[in-house]
Q: What sequence folds into this?
């Protein structure tokens, strides 16, 4: 559900950049009291895991479409909504800048659509409500499933509204919404199952992580080395190997565009759109999660290439490993900087 710039006007894209920056600033302020030596590396490793997991598109049977984990709900459950949103933003920033996954003008929309609804609507209002009487496997499953579906429905509907407000006449509201919502309902069900599986494992291994994320407490002296190791290994294997087996079908947004317009992507207009596309082409060293060819485009074997499956390709593996490492560094650095600034302020008042 990564939007391309062609789906947005500069006014809507710029407005969503400002809105998302505001949500990020609010999250930075609120998360300051929740970060300690344990949660900062957890942000990094979970960011790397979500980056790798998003490389694996799964086929939606009978549709010719595919979907992938969003990850915002999972991050909110394990980190709390504020750290979860900032980690989700780290994932999407790395994807947009260096892998050309989602446009630069659309980056504010993508962070908002995938991060805000899951962290600040679905997590507190649905998931936490369903598990408030105590964690059980059944409640985690039900809460994850329903929250994932609602979060993705809100995010996909937001995509439709943003294109409507941008005046994208190729996408009539009624047609686009009738394609986007059902296909993302199916994707949301799978996301809920994956989220429930990961959360259940963490709950059985270190239940304190979920409990303290829900209350905004520091992790304190809890030993989470096993959790960090398992998630890091999962990120490496997923990004380095499992990514070869991603479905080659278009994702839910591309599928909806294809059925509404006959094309998986719309052509971007001149001006701001072309300038940002040129900038992204220069920055993105692994476009579409593969090596660049001499023309600066994604070489064969890149993720989503319909010519080969599985896409056993060094470019795909290197993209998964490098992207995961970059996300880990950005998410952890974000947490570390916030924590350091908070401690500096505290010491000045001693």
A:
């Amino acid at each position: 559900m990564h939007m391309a710039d062609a789906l947005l006007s500069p006014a809507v894209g710029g407005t969503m950049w400002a809105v998302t920056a505001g949500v990020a600033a609010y999250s930075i302020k609120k998360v300051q009291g929740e970060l300690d030596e344990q949660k900062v590396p957890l942000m990094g490793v979970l960011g790397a895991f979500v980056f790798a997991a998003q490389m694996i598109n799964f086929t939606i049977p009978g549709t010719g479409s595919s979907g992938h984990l969003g990850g915002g709900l999972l991050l909110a459950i394990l980190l709390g909504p504020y750290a979860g949103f900032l980690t989700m933003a780290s994932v999407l920033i790395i994807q947009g800048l260096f892998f050309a996954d989602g446009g630069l003008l659309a980056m504010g929309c993508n962070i908002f659509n995938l991060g805000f609804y899951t962290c600040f609507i679905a997590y507190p209002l649905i998931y936490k409500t369903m598990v408030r009487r105590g964690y059980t496997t059944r409640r985690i499953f039900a809460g994850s499933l329903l929250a994932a579906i609602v979060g993705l429905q809100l995010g996909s509907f937001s995509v439709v509204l943003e294109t409507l407000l941008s005046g994208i006449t190729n996408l009539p509201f009624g047609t686009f919404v009738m394609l986007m919502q059902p296909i993302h309902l199916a994707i949301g069900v799978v996301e809920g199952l994956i989220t429930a599986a990961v959360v259940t494992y963490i709950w059985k291994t270190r239940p304190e992580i979920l409990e303290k994320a829900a209350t905004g407490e520091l992790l304190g002296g809890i030993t989470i080395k096993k959790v960090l190791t398992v998630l890091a290994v999962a990120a490496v294997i997923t990004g380095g190997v499992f990514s070869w087996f991603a479905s080659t079908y278009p994702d839910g947004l591309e599928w909806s565009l294809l059925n509404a317009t006959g094309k998986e992507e719309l052509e971007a207009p001149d001006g701001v759109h072309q300038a940002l596309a040129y900038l992204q082409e220069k920055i993105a060293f692994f476009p579409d999660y593969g090596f660049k060819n001499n023309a600066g485009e994604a070489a064969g074997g890149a993720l989503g290439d319909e010519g080969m499956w599985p896409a056993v390709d060094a470019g795909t593996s290197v993209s998964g490993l490098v992207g995961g490492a970059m996300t880990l560094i950005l998410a952890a650095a974000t947490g570390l900087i916030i924590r350091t600034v908070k401690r500096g302020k505290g010491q000045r008042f001693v």
